[in-house]
Amino acid sequence: MKMSFSSLEFLLFFPLVIVGYNLLPQRFRLLFLLLSSYVFYLFQHPAYAFILLGVTIVTFFFAKWINNRTDRKRKRMLAVGVCCILLPLLVFKYYNGFNQLIFSLFDRIGINVSFPSIDLLLPVGMSFYTFMAIGYLVDVYYDEVQPETNFCSVALFLSFFPYLLSGPIERSNNMFPQIRQLQRSKPNDISKGLKTMLWGYFMKLCVADRIKPLVDVAFENLDVCTGSILALVSALYAIELYADFGGYSLIAIGSARCLGINIIENFRRPFFATSISELWHRWHISLINWLTEYIFSPVSFSLKKLGGFGVAVAIIITFLISGLWHGAKMTFVIWGLINGIFLCYEMVTRKYRLSIESRFHLTRNPLYVFLRCFFVFVIFSLSTILCRCDSLAQGKVFMSSMFFSNWETDYILRFFTAVGRMKVFIMIIALIILITKECHDEFSSKRSVLFESHNSVIRFFSYFVTIVFILLFGVFSGGQYIYFNF
Amino acid sequence: MDRDTIIEKLTHILRDSLGYNDLVVTETMSAKDVDTWDSLSHFQIIKKIEDTFSVKFKFKDLKGLKNVGDIIRFIESNTL
């Protein structure tokens, strides 16, 4: 019986945690939240909690040891600590993939070599808390934070249930000050937190889970799908991913906010980005911040003698790691490489593009801005659809079918009929609502006219309509969140 | 090297690296104030500062640089 944000168990668990947290004296809140977070994780799989505890113990002690050492030993201790923390992730996530890679490489030259495969399921959340633990050790190494003396604080930092399963990937310098205080929730926290969660549920249950059947049907019938259908599916998958992961992140942020804890924003209307580099300031912000801080910055710094070429190498390395972090498949590596290459292109051509835009006042032209957004969306969705493919071979089939098959739009109507017209209609309505809110939030400086209206009747009516829409049209059997797989 | 010279040379570096010929550099200016000053341009700026002022940053030094004023103070304390 697994507990996720959209399960009935969570709808019972969460209010109990809020009430318990606020009724308890301050000195018991840390332990209460820690126990609640582990109860939440035990619902995933009891064994996972032991692995998390093991990583927590390693993190706690290595942070102390790093702090007590001098320069050369500090570095060695950091390296050992990072390796110890990474080891479970490497085994669970990459061992079988690495084994297959070795096998296929040797197989090409006629040698039959492989290591014994291990039947292991990646513990949910491991990719996320591993990165958080490593970030904490590095921050201690650079004296950005002092090592936490309270083991329970470190344990809560890594296991906090709102972000445990799929992030956002938090930083020690944001979380530890809040963990040390653990104030009672203010009414404003509960209000904002619940509103954020409500919108997150809408995105996940009414948008993401409504798009999913179309994408699944297309992938089950790739051989008969036309180019127009696959192009549509490619765009829809990007939106599904955003609504699923963005929705999850909002639920995580909202549930933390109900406890008076502020965690990092993870998405900021990514499809309004006018460049790939801007996209990566709006998409999975916590991951890109982590990669920038702990991978890109040190690599670029060490390669700065190479100038722009050094930065380009650092970009490629960072995005290859990003791809691998998502999964031990070539499709993720190619995805990372595509994004890295486009970032390099933008870096190299930035000056020229800026001068042309300035000379012709292009950035004031709405059509130009729209075309840039569209181009970025196309690149992103074409690269991201690879992540949906089971293998590079399937990715090749998808791309060749998309580019070289029929592009008549009639086939899209037939595709909708095959999926179910009512289902498609509801999906379109949900998409319109999402796009309307996104446009409003992006272009309007005023607060949302719905959830934040000064008029309490409008406010409560909008909550009511959203809840009813979720209850009537939300897909509650839509399965787990996509990023649980990472 | 006097402060005015440092600011003048730094302004030239930032204008050239960030693509804004009319950029007005102030001590409180930071990466957040300029849309083209991101992690991609940051290390190229650092390299140009090192070459122009004959200074050498350690990686740990970069974490303490929050704005242009910090960069100026670093250059002042590391040049003759």
Task: Supply the key terms.
heterodimer, A: 486 residues, mainly alpha, 19 helices, 73% helix, B: 80 residues, globular
Summarize, please:
The complex is a heterodimer of chains A (486) and B (80). With 486 residues, chain A is mainly alpha-helical. Chain A has 19 helices and no strands.
What is the secondary structure topology, with strand pairs?
The complex is a heterodimer of chains A (486) and B (80).
Chain A: H1 8-23, H2 26-42, H3 46-67, H4 71-108, H5 126-141, H6 151-159, H7 161-164, H8 172-181, H9 187-220, H10 227-258, H11 276-279, H12 285-302, H13 308-326, H14 330-359, H15 366-388, H16 392-404, H17 410-419, H18 421-443, H19 456-473
Helix pairs in contact in A: 1-2, 2-6, 3-4, 3-5, 3-6, 4-5, 6-8, 9-10, 9-18, 9-19, 10-15, 10-16, 12-13, 13-14, 14-15
Chain B: H1 3-18, H2 39-53, H3 59-63, H4 68-78
What would your notes on this structure say?
The complex is a heterodimer of chains A (486) and B (80). Chain A is mainly alpha-helical and 486 residues long. Chain A contains 19 helices and no strands. In chain A, helix 4 (71-108) packs antiparallel against helix 5, helix 9 crosses helix 18 and helix 14 (330-359) runs antiparallel to helix 15 (366-388). Chain A is globular, with a radius of gyration of 24 Å. The model of chain A has no long low-confidence stretch (mean pLDDT 90). Chain B has 80 residues and is an all-alpha fold. In chain B, 59% of the residues lie in helices and 0% in strands. Chain B is built from four helices and no strands. The chains are: A mainly alpha (486), B mainly alpha (80). At the A-B interface, helix 12, helix 13 and helix 14 of A face helix 2 and helix 3 of B.
